[in-house]
Design goal:
The complex is a heterodimer of chains A (about 475) and B (about 300). Chain A has about 475 residues and is an alpha+beta fold. Chain A is built from 13 helices and 17 strands. The longest helix of chain A has 21 residues. Chain B is built from 10 helices and 3 strands. In chain B, strands 1-2-3 form a 3-stranded mixed beta sheet. The longest helix of chain B has about 40 residues. Classes of the chains: A alpha+beta (about 475), B mainly alpha (about 300).
Chain lengths: ~475, ~300
C-alpha cells in the first residue's frame, strides 16, 4: 500500500533532521553505553567492522539490519557496535528502527516522555505495534511495514528484529521463523540482510539492559535478501533465521556459559510413596500438599482436568518442573530444592516459565503411559522436537534391573545411549562421567562435552537425556 | 478422604518443650519411610543430607515437600498468628500467639537440607529458642552442598578408575585420557575445598548472577512504573489495566528473586566461614578425593 504524500513528507523531514544531528546523537549513544553502563565492545571489533563494511561497500542497495533481541536497548548497542564514527557521513547506511510503541513512547511524565520521543524521532524510529488483533492495530502494522519499504526503496536501511520481540528463552530458535522480514525483502528485491548476533558475556535471560560493565561480543554478516525467482516470504525468513542461528553458535563458541541447557525427569507412577497424599481412588488429594507444589494457575488447570486425571495431572506438572530445574541448573540458575513455585508449567502450551528470571522453557513428554512419565525440557541450545520433527534431544528410559543401584544404572544407561548414537564413539568405554560443578557431564577424548547430560531415576525406572546440537 | 499417610498418625508435641537433639531425632524418624538408602539412614546424624545416595538418605525429590510437611505434623508452636510483612502487604509472617499447628511458609525451608538444618530453621523462625551449643554441631548449607559435590566427584573418579583398569589397547588409552581430566578436576576441587576464601569466591559467582538478575528485574519494574505514569495521563483504562497486571507480575518475580538472592548470599557468606564441624567434613571429603586420585594415578 503506497504511503500518503503527507506521510512521505513527514518521513523526509524526520530523515533530514536526524541527518543533521547524527553526529551528536551517535556520540551520546556511545557515551551512555561506555560511561553510564560501562559496556566494552568485542576485543576484535576492529576486524569485525572492517569485514562487514567491506561487504557493505560492495553492495550498493538497501539493507535490512536483522539482529537477535534480548534487551530493550539492543538497537542502540548494535548500532554502536557496527557503525564506526568515521562512517557517520554515510547517511543512507544509518538504519531506521522499529521500536515497540508501548515500550518506549509513553514512558514517565510528560517531560520525560517528550524527551524520549524526541530522541527516538532523531534516531529514525518508526513506532511499531506488535500486540493487538483489531483493525486499528493491523492498520498500524501495515503502515509501519509500508514506511520500512519506502525507506528501503529510497536506498536506506531499516532495523527490524526478526523474532518480533525479545526472546523469552534467551535463545534464537530457527525453527520458528517469522515472515515479516521475508515479506519486506520481497517488497524491495535488491535488499540485503545485515545479520548481527550481539550479546553481552553474562546475558542469560531477557532483561531491560545487559549487566553493567559487561563486554558485548558480536558476530555479523551480510547475506542476500530475496534470491532471483524467489516468491515465498517464509523461505527467505527461514534462510535469514538459519544464518542467525549459525552466528549464534559461533558466538557461543567463545562463551564461558554452557550453550546446551536441557534436563529430564522420570516418574514411576506406581511408586507407593507417590500415592500417599492422594485418596485411595486417587481422585482427591491433600490440598496443602498440592499448594506446596503448584502455583494458582497450575492448580486451576489441574482442577479443570477433573478428578479422574488428578493423580496423573499432578505428576505431569511435577515431572516437568523437575526437568526444568535441571535445564536451568545448566545455565547456572539454581532453583532451590523444594522451591516448586519458582517454575510455572503450562501443560497445554508445553511451556514452563522460571518466574524470577522470566525465562521460558519448552517441555515435551516422551513417555506418558500407565506406568511412568518422562519429560524433557530445553532452555537453549537446540530444538526440543515435536510430533512432526525430531529435535536435538535424545533420551532413553529403562527399567532398573532388580538388585542394581539406580544411580549406577542410570549412569551406565547414559553412556551406552551416547555411544550408540554416535558412529565415532562406538563404545561407552571411550566415555567417562564427570560430576564437575555438581552437575553430571561427559568426557570424550579427555575433553568435557557440552551435551547437557541429565539423569533421573524414580522407583523402577531410570532415564537419561542429552543434546546433540 | 482416606490418605495413605494416615497409616502413620503422629501426635504433635510443643517444639518448645523439646531439646534440639530430641527435635532432630523426631525429624529424622519422620522421614524414615522416604529414605531409600537404608545404610546411610541408619547412621544418619544432624549433618546427613536428606537427598543424595552417596552420603545422603536417598530421599527422592518427589518427597521433598513431604519432609517439610512431616515436620509440620510433628510439632506445635506458639508462632501461629498471621501478620502482614508490612502494612497492606498480601505477604505474611507468623508471630507469637496461642499454641497451635506449626506452619512452614513457602521458601522458609530452602536451606533445610539436613535434620540439623531443619532444627536451625525452626530456631531461625522463632519456633524454638536458639541453642548455640547445638548449632555449633550443624554444618552450614553451603558446606552440605560443597561437600556433596566433592563426594560425587570422588565417587565418579573411583568408578572410572575401576572401569579403566579392566580395559586394554586403544580403549584403555582413551579411558586414561578421560581419567586424567577427572584427576585434574578432582585436584582442583580438592584445592578449592582446602581454601575457604577460594570456595567463598566461587560461591560468590552464583550470588553475583542472582544479584544481576535481581537488579535487572528492579530496572524492569521501574520501567513498568514509568509506563504506568505515561499511560495514566492519557486515560487509556485497558492499557493501564494491562500495565498494572505487568507490575503485579514483576513484583511477584522480584519477591522470588529476593528470596533466591538471600539463599545465594547466605551460601556465599557461609562458605567463607569454616568452623570445626565443617573442617571435619571437609577433611573427610578431601581424603576421599585424594584417595581416588591416588588410585587413578596408579593406572597412568
Amino acid at each position: 500500500m503506497p504511503l500518503e504524500a503527507e506521510e512521505v513528507k513527514a518521513l523526509r523531514l524526520q530523515w533530514a533532521l536526524s541527518r543533521a544531528l547524527v553526529v551528536p546523537v551517535s556520540l551520546v549513544v556511545a557515551a551512555v553505553a561506555r560511561l553510564h553502563f560501562g559496556y566494552r565492545l568485542d576485543d576484535e571489533i576492529g576486524r569485525i567492522r572492517a569485514e562487514i563494511w567491506a561487504k557493505l561497500d560492495a553492495h550498493d542497495g538497501p539493507v535490512i539490519w536483522a539482529a537477535n533481541h534480548l534487551t530493550l536497548i539492543d538497537s542502540f548497542l548494535v548500532y554502536w557496535a557496527v557503525f564506526p564514527t568515521n562512517r557517520l557521513i554515510e547517511d543512507r547506511r544509518i538504519p531506521w528502527s522499529t521500536p515497540e510503541y508501548t515500550n518506549y513512547y509513553k514512558l514517565g511524565g510528560p517531560v520525560q516522555s517528550a524527551l524520549i520521543r524526541g530522541l527516538l524521532y532523531l534516531c529514525r524510529c518508526i513506532p511499531f505495534l506488535r500486540g493487538g488483533e483489531d483493525a486499528a492495530s493491523e492498520t498500524w502494522r501495515q503502515k509501519a511495514f509500508d514506511k520500512c519499504a519506502w525507506v528501503l526503496r529510497e536506498g536506506g536501511a531499516v532495523f527490524v528484529y526478526p523474532e518480533a520481540g525479545r526472546s523469552r528463552s534467551g535463545w534464537l530458535e530457527p525453527k520458528r521463523p517469522k515472515d515479516f522480514l521475508g515479506k519486506l525483502a520481497l517488497e524491495v528485491p535488491n535488499t540485503k540482510f545485515l545479520c548481527v548476533y550481539l550479546r553481552s558475556d553474562r546475558q542469560i535471560s531477557t532483561t531491560a539492559a545487559p549487566p553493567r560493565g559487561d563486554r558485548l561480543r558480536l558476530v555479523a554478516d551480510l547475506i542476500d535478501g530475496a534470491l532471483p525467482g524467489e516468491t515465498n516470504a517464509r523461505d527467505i525468513s527461514q534462510r535469514l533465521f538459519d544464518r542467525l542461528a549459525e552466528m549464534q553458535r559461533e558466538w557461543w563458541k567463545g562463551s564461558d556459559m554452557a550453550r546446551n541447557c536441557a534436563g529430564n525427569d522420570v516418574v514411576d507412577l506406581k511408586g507407593p510413596l507417590l500415592r500417599e497424599n492422594f485418596s485411595d481412588d486417587l481422585t482427591e488429594a491433600d490440598e496443602s500438599w498440592l499448594d506446596r507444589h503448584l502455583t494458582r494457575k497450575e492448580l486451576a488447570y489441574l482442577d479443570s482436568l477433573g478428578p479422574a486425571n488428578l493423580f496423573r495431572g499432578f505428576w505431569r506438572f511435577f515431572c516437568a518442573k523437575e526437568a526444568c530445574h535441571k535445564a536451568l541448573g545448566r545455565a547456572v540458575i539454581v532453583v532451590p530444592n523444594g522451591a516448586f513455585h519458582e517454575i510455572e508449567v503450562d501443560l497445554f502450551r508445553r511451556k514452563a516459565t522460571h518466574i524470577p528470571t522470566g525465562l521460558q522453557l519448552d517441555i515435551r513428554f516422551t513417555d506418558d503411559d500407565e506406568d511412568k512419565l518422562h519429560c524433557v525440557a530445553v532452555l537453549r541450545g537446540g530444538w526440543i522436537g515435536d510430533e512432526t520433527a525430531e529435535g536435538d534431544v535424545l533420551w532413553s528410559v529403562a527399567a532398573v534391573p532388580s538388585g542394581t543401584s539406580p544411580g549406577a544404572f542410570v549412569r551406565d544407561l547414559a553412556l551406552d545411549m551416547i555411544a550408540a548414537s554416535n558412529d565415532e564413539i562406538e563404545t561407552s568405554s571411550r566415555l567417562a562421567l564427570t560430576e564437575n560443578s555438581g552437575l553430571p557431564g561427559v568426557l570424550w577424548r579427555g575433553e568435557p562435552q557440552d551435551w547437557s547430560l541429565s539423569l533421573s531415576h524414580s522407583g523402577r525406572y531410570a532415564a537419561a537425556s542429552f543434546m546433540i546440537s | 478422604m482416606a490418605f495413605m499417610r494416615k497409616q502413620a498418625v503422629v501426635e504433635a508435641v510443643d517444639v518448645n518443650t523439646l531439646t534440639p537433639e530430641d527435635t532432630e531425632k523426631r525429624i529424622t524418624a519422620g522421614v524414615k519411610k522416604y529414605a531409600t538408602n537404608e545404610a546411610n539412614y541408619a547412621a544418619a546424624d544432624a549433618n546427613t543430607p536428606y537427598l543424595g545416595h552417596i552420603v545422603g538418605m536417598g530421599i527422592e525429590s518427589s518427597n521433598l515437600a513431604d519432609i517439610t510437611m512431616s515436620i509440620e505434623r510433628q510439632f506445635l508452636t506458639k508462632m501461629t498468628v498471621k501478620t502482614p510483612v508490612s502494612e497492606g502487604s498480601a505477604e505474611f509472617k507468623l508471630t507469637a500467639g496461642e499454641l497451635g499447628k506449626l506452619r512452614i511458609l513457602d521458601g522458609q525451608d530452602a536451606l533445610a537440607a539436613t535434620p540439623g538444618l531443619s532444627v536451625k530453621m525452626l530456631m531461625d523462625l522463632g519456633h524454638m529458642p536458639k541453642n548455640d551449643a547445638y548449632l555449633e554441631k550443624v554444618m552450614s548449607f553451603a558446606y552440605v552442598m560443597a561437600t556433596g559435590d566433592g563426594w560425587k566427584m570422588a565417587d565418579a573418579l573411583k568408578k572410572m578408575a575401576g572401569k579403566a583398569e579392566k580395559l586394554a589397547g586403544a580403549e584403555r588409552a582413551e579411558a586414561l585420557a578421560n581419567l586424567k581430566t577427572l584427576v585434574a578436576q578432582a585436584k582442583d576441587y580438592d584445592a578449592l575445598l582446602a581454601d575457604a576464601a577460594k570456595l567463598a569466591a566461587s560461591k560468590g559467582k552464583a550470588y553475583n548472577n542472582d544479584k544481576a538478575g535481581f537488579d535487572a528485574l528492579t530496572t524492569e519494574l521501574n520501567l513498568t512504573l514509568d509506563k504506568i505514569k505515561g499511560v495514566s495521563a492519557g486515560g487509556d483504562a485497558a492499557a493501564l489495566a494491562k500495565l498494572r497486571g505487568e507490575e503485579a507480575e514483576i513484583r511477584t518475580r522480584l519477591k522470588m528473586s529476593a528470596a533466591k538472592l538471600r539463599v545465594s548470599q547466605e551460601v556465599s557468606e557461609a562458605a567463607g566461614k569454616r568452623r570445626a564441624v565443617e573442617d571435619a567434613q571437609v577433611a573427610k571429603v578431601r581424603a576421599a578425593l585424594q584417595e581416588a586420585v591416588t588410585l587413578a594415578e596408579k593406572l597412568s
